[in-house]
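> tool_call: predict_assembly(chains=two)
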Amino acid sequence: GAVVSQHPSWVICKSGTSVKIECRSLDFQATTMFWYRQFPKQSLMLMATSNEGSKATYEQGVEKDKFLINHASLTLSTLTVTSAHPEDSSFYICSANSGYNSPLHFGNGTRLTVT
Amino acid sequence: SQQGEEDPQALSIQEGENATMNCSYKTSINNLQWYRQNSGRGLVHLILIRSNEREKHSGRLRVTLDTSKKSSSLLITASRAADTASYFCATGSQGGSEKLVFGKGMKLTVNP
């Protein structure tokens, strides 16, 4: 089945630094990937839609300069949290779609802790 | 914005019992999907039901969809302790977008 690999699974960084999270589709090509953020015991909040070869589409209220998304190939999208602050601490999850009207395939998430 | 709303938000049952979760949504959809999430992990797709389908089965899972009521239900039969997880419904909207909107989720605890 379709596999999405997300790396790292957890990261601790100091306030002010930047953190890059990778999302790879291992056995299929994904023209579109999605980045979600999840707070404890809450649902997934869509942050942005990552489109291969073009700019990402951000949801309302999500700062595009804060959360940089790059989708340089059909199998890789990256999310960079720039100048991280403690309030950016969260669980970030990526997903990819293997086709229209098909299920999303999720990575295992990245737990970001900003100290 | 969230569209799906699961009900109940938490459910605790004994192993062997059936678990039913309901999901309501607001706008027209292309499909409705159910996912499960173990604590601290990504989501795993369970089942997808298209807007022109009314019922679907997969192993111990049974999903129904009532587009007139804008609701869906997920039934897990003969539950096991390993079914303990959070369950989310998600809707794919009409209009061609691949974007899914997730509900708030429901925490299922199956006691051995």
